[in-house]
Amino acid sequence: MDTSQKRKKDKKKDKKSKKKKLTQEQPVLDKSDGEDEVQYGTKAVEDVLNEAIEDKGRPWTVSVALPGSILDNAQSLPLRTYLAGQIARALVVFNVDEVIVFDESGYDAVESTEGTFQGIGRKGNANVQLARILQYLECPQYLRKNFFPKHPDLQYAGVLNPLDCPHHMRAEAPSSYREGVVLKKQIAVGKGSYVDVGKTKEVQIDKQLQPGLRVTVRMNEGAETSEFKHCKVVPPSEPRTNAGLYWGYSVRLASSLGSVFTSCPYKDGYDLTIGTSEKGENVDDVELPEFRHLLVVFGGLKGLENSLEADEKLEVPEPSLLFDQYLNTCPNQGSGTIRTEEAILVTMSILRPKILQAIS
After folding, report:
1. Average pLDDT for residues 200-225, to the nearest whole number?
2. What's the whole-model pTM score?
């Protein structure tokens, strides 16, 4: 073998050895010194990210309210379903914690998706239909069969784009928290309950709860042999408040625009409320104050003016008086109308840096 051939062979060996080394030592995020430095190590990226968010909980929340009547603008049940899917995707992209679907018709208002409602599609209750589809998409796939029996409103929901939220995880995915359903499986008195959390085996929790109940479970992070035991049921907000994880959104039905405010689930209510309208103040000229619970309200096809007019209990002359800030989030718009599903994306995009600045 001559010298040139030998050099080529040695170069190939060096490339193979380097490639093998890089495969074994993948880059991971090291946050130990407070800087975002990429180092090589054998630790899984998911483990490092989990460590990075420890002790960095998120105490503040973002809520979005919109009328279910926006579905009436769709021409068929498949289009209505797709529209609901677009809204769900927008909500999770911007880490919205609560969505309120309010009725702006002024009659036949309902505040629950339970029961059977007459008619679907354009003849049905748009508020209930939107809320049901939003609930279905937010629920982890492995739990849907427990909470969503076959229903006409969900006929086309199976073909919608998945939300891919942090709590929509595969069986083998490591996580400190999981969503689950309490099983009817017998267990000794005082030993808690069994819960299906989407893994290969059910886990044992510390409390005895009613079967069929959806729960948030803090997984046992001990030895692998005991990971299915000694798990704990925690409030659904704990992944957010303790670990800073986005854990999906809750869905609430409101009988009117006023009920959006009066039925707030937070003890002290929403401390910052924003209404959106082309008649509002230019969002570019506004800074958000510090808040704990933010509410952003969108109008329907005829705007918030129509929603206010339909609510006889609200004695204010114009919708701007209902909110701390009344904003035009798309000034100088090129189209005469902005659809609600478009308004959510536009508004949350422009509010995102202002929100981060307000809570920092």
Report:
1. 84
2. 0.79
